[in-house]
Design brief:
This protein is of the alpha+beta class and 147 residues long. It is built from four helices and five strands; from the N terminus they run βααβββαβα.
């Protein structure tokens, strides 16, 4: 297995993965718009970076992240937006390999920390993060406002 950044050539497969992620969370599994994916990830000012875990040509999972500022003081943090492993590849070390690469990306960028959220009704994810040594943070409430 290898983990590397997604490239524009991965756009169509990312579209399929986004549909799988949407279905995993109970939504309608409609593939993402390839043009929107290209703009979001491969424009001069990308909204995020995506790491892909692969076994040969097969994509096993992804991690999507952005940098946030300020984190603590004037520090920068890496924010993990999505960690997803295809069902056929779960429990095979894919998520751990993606998290390892995220730690490297954060260190390379001079970040002081990595941050993320997890759904409280996803016990497998919560157990995975706890196994990594991460502890849930108290004192924050997650908000969302639709546009």
């Amino acid at each position: 297995m290898q983990v590397s950044p997604a490239t524009e050539a991965d756009t169509n497969e990312l579209s399929v993965l986004l549909a799988e992620i949407e279905q995993y969370y109970g939504g309608d599994p409609v593939p993402g718009d390839p043009d929107q994916i290209r703009r979001a990830l491969f424009s001069p000012h990308p909204a995020a970076t995506v790491l892909l875990a692969r076994d040969g040509d097969e994509i096993l999972g992804l991690a999507s992240y952005s940098f946030l500022w300020p984190a603590a003081g004037a520090d920068t943090s890496l924010y993990l937006k999505e960690l997803y492993v295809r069902e056929s590849a779960r429990r095979g070390g894919v998520a751990r390999a993606l998290m390892t690469e995220l730690l490297k990306a954060a260190a390379d960028a001079g970040c002081s920390r990595i941050e993320w959220t997890a759904d409280t009704d996803n016990p497998a994810a919560l157990a995975f993060y706890e196994a990594l040594g991460a502890e849930p943070r108290k004192g924050k409430v997650f908000y969302r406002s639709a546009l």
